[in-house]
From TrEMBL:
Residues 3-50 form the DUF5606 domain. Pfam families: DUF5606, DUF6852. This is DUF5606 domain-containing protein. It comes from the Bacteria. InterPro entries: BVU_3817-like_C_sf, BVU_3817_N_sf, DUF5606, DUF6852. Residues 53-119 form the DUF6852 domain.
Length: 151
């Protein structure tokens, strides 16, 4: 699953794809049907990459990617807008059985379900996540590029 570049912005509904950066902030494109492009100011907005989000667990935190993988295998999802908190909690116990029930609220569960509904129409679930960049290898690549430019 490849969630790199998919972010949530505090105070804005939905999810966004990071498409660039300018002097004042990040350029984002909404993942809904409107595909609205916005610039989010670095100093005033908080963004969270879905790749880095974790959920409170009883022992260790649970990665959002792992929860999405389990949700992907299910045939039906609860309706986050209509179903009761008890039904949402029962569903979440199925996909994340070791989550901390005291610190993971119904609003968090609703948000995760809504994010999954947005993302399930994209090919992200079939893509492999890119390997993390190795700082040493990046430094070697830059050194090679400088040497080639010097010739």
């Amino acid at each position: 699953m490849n969630l790199r570049g998919i972010v949530s912005v505090t105070g804005r509904p939905g999810l966004f794809k990071l498409i660039g950066q300018n002097k004042t902030g990040f350029i984002l494109e909404s993942l809904d049907e409107k595909r609205v492009k916005i610039v989010v100011n670095i100093s005033t907005a908080k963004m969270a990459s879905l790749e880095d989000i974790t959920i409170f667990g009883t022992e260790d935190d649970i990665k959002l990617i792992d929860i999405f993988e389990k949700m992907k295998g299910l045939s039906s999802l609860p309706d986050a807008k209509k179903d009761s908190g008890d039904k949402l909690r029962a569903f979440f116990n199925e996909v994340a059985p070791d989550h901390d029930e005291e610190r993971v609220y119904s609003s968090d569960i609703k948000k995760i379900i809504n994010w999954f509904v947005i993302l399930k129409g994209f090919p992200l679930f079939d893509e492999e996540a890119p390997a993390p960049l190795d700082a040493e290898a990046v430094g070697e690549d830059k050194k090679v590029e400088r040497e080639e430019l010097a010739k």
